[in-house]
Amino acid sequence: MVMSTHAQAKFEVQSWEENTYEELEGDAKLTRASVGQAFTGDLEGEGSVEWLMCYREDKTADFVGLQRFVGSLGSRSGSFVMTTQGSFDGSEAKGSLDVVAGSGTEELSAITGTGAFAAPLGSTASVELDYDVE
Fold first, then answer.
1. Parallel, antiparallel, or unpaired: how do β-strands 125-133 and 111-120 relate?
2. Contact, 118 vs 103, CB < 8 A?
3. Tens digit of pLDDT for each residue in 55-110?
4. Which residues of 27-65 are buried (b: 16+ CB within 10 A; e: fewer)?
């Protein structure tokens, strides 16, 4: 049995461009956000993510997205894509991450893994990823 490696990192949002693509009842809406990130820690590099969000009238939201990471993970370099899914309670976004099978490149070409993130409004987000590289 292979033991997963546990990685911990932080990310800062470098850019955030969000646009409404559909207005819903009341103040609810559907939006798309293009976000750039800078990672430090066990994940060292740049991230970019496209999130689709559904905001409710109370300004809370659920979201799904695809996130690409480019840089190094531990001693290996390359890139990979993760699916993200989560919710925003008005003060913090939390969610899960899953590495997309077959999306890795270079030394990360055979990566698999799952993780989670927590991003309080206006501060540094934390990320945890349990991964294997064949």
1. antiparallel
2. no
3. 999 999 999 999 999 999 999 999 999 999 999 999 999 999 999 999 999 999 99
4. eebebbbebebebeebbebebbbebebbbbeeeebebeb
- 125-12-5 Cα angle (round to 5): 55
Residue 105 · residue 114 · CB < 8 Å = no
Strand partners, 119: 93
Identify the three-state secondary structure at position 21: strand
Share the mean pLDDT of the chain. 95
CA distances from 81 to 6, 29, 117 (A): 18, 27, 15
User: Whole-model pTM?
Assistant: 0.93
Contact 99, 119 (CB under 8 A): no
State CA 111 to chain mean position distance. Answer: 16
For the chain, how big is the Rg over CA atoms in Å?
15
Backbone angles phi, psi at 107, to 5 degrees: -70, -10
